[in-house]
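Quick start: read one record
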Amino acid sequence: MDSQCRVCGSFVNQSIFSAKLLNRTVNYFDCPKCRYVQTQEPEWLDQAYSSAINNCDTGIMVRNLANSRLVAATLHSLGLTTGTVVDCAGGYGILVRLLRDRGIDAYWSDPYCKNALAVGFEFNEESADLVTAFEAFEHFVNPEIELKKLFEIAPNVLLSTELIADPAPAAENWWYYGLDHGQHIGFFRVQTLQYLAERFHKNLCTDGRGRHLFSDKPISTRKWKTNTLIERFIPGFFSRNLPSRVWSDFELMSRAKK
């Protein structure tokens, strides 16, 4: 059995292992060119997405709080502290509301989930400086195509996805395969991200674990990591001079109801 890499298009001749996923046996492949690890063609996605947010995602609130700090640190690293952010795969709108509360001009986008907390601040093709895609790339059937769409929104893309070890761990030894919900169908290594950066003529910063930035202009990875640590230990440090949008958003939405 062979498979075509959904990132670089190379053919992979043999699966590295198979695993039980949603009551079926699924083969996994490791691309020798870009080092992307993927499932076979995922024909089970309708079943996997019976709910947009899977019930195992108990870390959704902690993750969004951490991501709000990461976004602030990244904007500062890019010299775009007052820049506009679009959160793609924005889920219920948690991150957008957190960012706006901090004074960051953020907007929501997600074709698969209802916007519950950032109503009125949906992305409507405005220009943006940074687009985020947290815990989304492992869900994409065609990551290169989806990344191209993100770059059409903004020149800088900040994403999170856990990097897979080399060699790939056995199915039972890594929780991120998501065998219980079937939504994770592709897994990245630094080599994969570097391939994509070169494909789109972008610069790559990565923490080597789960947070990654494609930027239009080169920035220091050390600076980005340092700023991220500052925000981690002093939340709000890089947005301290931005007025919160809580009240102005309230006034805006109140006027919209009249």
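The mean pLDDT is 94.
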